[in-house]
Amino acid sequence: MDSLDEPLLVSSASQIYETPPIFYQIIHIADVSTWYHRQALDELEFLLCEIPGYEINSLVSKKLSLFIEDTLNVYLVMKNYIHNGGCQTKTHIMITKNFDVFDDFNELNKDLYLRDLLSIQEEKNKEDVNMLFMFNLSSYESFLKFNLLNYEVNIYKYLNQLIYLDKNYVNIRIYDIYENDVTHSVIEKIKLIDEIKYNNKTSNSNNIKTTI
User: Fold this and answer.
1) Shortest CA distance to 97 belongs to which of 126, 61, 121, 131?
2) Which one of 46, 71, 88, 121 counts the least CB within 10 Å of its CB?
3) Is the pLDDT of residue 120 over 90?
4) What pTM, to 2 d.p., does this model score?
5) Average pLDDT of every residue of the chain
């Protein structure tokens, strides 16, 4: 990210805001919580995954370690700007562990700028990595190829495959851009997509057998 002095708009605020030529927008799109039915035997068993990423002002790769009973919050951070006469958007994912950055925004109680996000990151990452950005999303996982209009299914799939625990010990919630919980509809959509893919595969297989 380049300038730290651009406005940072929270959630859907930009829809009622007289937007400047360049601004950032942050939307809370998911959270994940986990538990386990017994005490882990050691730290390795307690570790669920390590998520690669970067800090706002650095391209030095870091990893955020997620353990059982941690809570993960996932945000879209979008840079909106005018380029060659058209509106352009660059989308990044931001991940925080065991805190909701919106609570920190409320404590600031002022107009926000990208610099404020950097200050929060510096505070949260003093002793351990608790806040990371993921740039160039598609270079990590095919699940992360999405935009503001179709992120729900892919984010659910990404988070679902990220954690090895049985689904009974993992609670994934997905939110739309208005912060409504749409998890149930996302799961049903995934089931429908999988069913259509299965039926198409079966139909193609039967057609091949008939031709032979």
Assistant:
1) 131
2) 88
3) yes
4) 0.85
5) 84
